[in-house]
Amino acid sequence: MIKDITEWIAQLQQQTQAHQQTCEVLAPQLNGYFPADFLQQSRFMVVDNLPMPSLSGIKGVLAKRWLPKELSAIAYPGCYYILRSEQQNWSEHCRQLVHLAQLQHLGTEAYLTLLYQQVSEQGFEQASLIKMAGQVAQHFEQGSNLSNIPALIKQSLATAEA
């Protein structure tokens, strides 16, 4: 299933690349949480419907079982897609940038494998990758003074891997 998804992601990125925006346009709203170089290499796209792989058979059933029904954004390597209705939701942008940092550190296959494992065992909301993004978004909403979130994520993930 992971191989099918990574192939689909590569096709999606190729098809949507011309419509993606660099995240550096978000810098004024993100209060220094992410360094300029990270925002320059990260991209997002505002969409009416979130792009999801169409997996059939047992793979599709399993994937649908662990994804929540109401998503407002989804991150894939290098780019996240956010619903038009949420495009001014800066904490959602922050949450998705956390997922991009996780993907960057772990790599696509390891990230998807770990996420699937965590969601299967603990449920979507309790998966540590999801909780980590939610905690950063919560700090952002509260106006906490944090910076260089990608470095904090890398440190946190490296500690968890040890």
Automatic annotation (TrEMBL):
Q: What is this protein called?
A: Uncharacterized protein
Q: Which organism is this entry from?
A: Motilimonas pumila
